[in-house]
TrEMBL record:
Name recorded for this polypeptide: Alpha/beta fold hydrolase
InterPro entries in the cross-refs: AB_hydrolase_fold (IPR029058)
Swiss-Prot/TrEMBL keywords: Signal
SUPFAM superfamilies: alpha/beta-Hydrolases
Leader sequence residues: 1-19
Cited Gene3D superfamilies: alpha/beta hydrolase
Phylogenetic classification of the source organism: Bacteria, Pseudomonadati, Pseudomonadota, Betaproteobacteria, Burkholderiales
Amino acid sequence: MHLRSLSALALAATLAACGGGGDNPAPTPPPTATDQLVATTVAGFPHAVNVYRTAGATRAIVLLHGGAGDLNAVAYQVGLNGSATTTSAASINWAWLHAHQVTLVVPQGQHIASNPGATTWSNHAMTSGQDDKAFLQALAAQVRSEYGLADITLMGHSMGGVMTNRMWCESAATFNRYVSLAGPASSAFGQPATPCAPGSAAPPYLGIIGDGDSVMQTAGAWDAATWTVNPAVVASSREAWVNAVVLGEFRQQQVRTALACGGTLDAAAFTSAGNVDTWQSCGGRLLLQRVRGADHGVASLDARMGTTSTTDVMDAVMAFVAAH
């Protein structure tokens, strides 16, 4: 019972004991649940975390920004924050979050001391100077315990997507499903010493990437085993890079399919809708979408996926979440 209700009942009892007349006051109703922007942290880690706590949410999405990004801009890029530089309760797209019953959790990546502009994640491609695998494990546990949300999707763009791939390979049970936007797995997972090993219950994975991605250099190289990150991008934060070679998304999706269900994935086995080619495997639990004509940014993916909406990517993500 709420404290105000207890106070009202105590007052009524006192009046009765003193011979006070009249009807007992009506009980005070509990406060209405409201949406909240919560700024928080995880014990033992320096990362700031914004939680868009949506009243009535049944699931959460943890959203990771790309290299040199931040927690305000990435939420803006996916259409869930009206500002690229700040976040307030008034700037959040609560309508979309309510429609999908989602609480959004946006952590801030860190940087090594010698490269303060390289805010990123320790994902075998770049290093943030932090144990981001342990951080995300602790963050997931905190979201489940503090907000009562057992269903959590990990989603990342660019280097955030590379970190998402690391978690799928190394800590698959931490999240219920994984979504990567223009963020393939590091080529470290193509080496015998560091295999991608999600276990027998490999969770669902959705990859979305443009075939004209100028950062991952996908143009004309869709079937390549590896892609090399654009040298100009690497040069801007060279000290934070440990490996600028990533695995080609289609080739790695073939590996994921074998790991997740012992299946195979044929290069010609896709369906097309508009500018989007889709490969499905393992009963649809693994989905890869190639967006024809799209570059690296979320805005480019949105624009090529069909409409002028700023949430086309997020709508595709939620369709996947709802199905799996």
